[in-house]
Design goal:
Layout (H helix, E strand, L loop, with lengths): L4 E4 L2 E4 L13 E6 L4 H16 L4 E6 L4 H6 L7 E5 L5 E5 L3 H12 L1
Length: about 110
């Protein structure tokens, strides 16, 4: 099974609703966003910077308008929403453009 990703610096953009990316066991962050979301646009540069500083973690960006099935599957109701996976079953999540919370969770995942 394959899936399409568009590389955006060190952030990979999921572009086809596929959940295959979740089957891997590496640490990862999923960032649900939308082009029309102001808070998403403000936190995106921080997200990209964290991706560049943490190469052991995979960072993914999911546009909710292009990935309705994946967005619904995760129960995302507001943007931005972040999921931090240490494994398939060990994860944390939060919604909102809280830079300090984003940094905290990425640092926790990196250790």
């Amino acid at each position: 099974m394959s899936f399409n990703l568009e590389e955006k610096g060190d952030v990979l953009e999921i572009i086809d609703n596929n959940k295959v990316v979740l089957k891997d066991t590496y640490p990862k962050v999923l960032y649900f966003t939308a082009k029309w979301c102001g808070p998403c646009q403000r936190i995106s540069p921080v997200y990209k910077e964290l991706a560049q500083k943490n190469p052991r973690i995979k960072f993914f960006k999911i546009d909710v308008d292009k990935n309705e099935e994946l967005t619904s599957g995760f129960g995302v109701q507001s943007m931005p929403t972040f999921f931090f996976f240490r494994s398939k079953t060990d994860y944390k999540t939060f919604s909102g453009a809280d830079v300090n919370k984003l940094i905290y969770h990425v640092e926790h995942l990196a250790n």
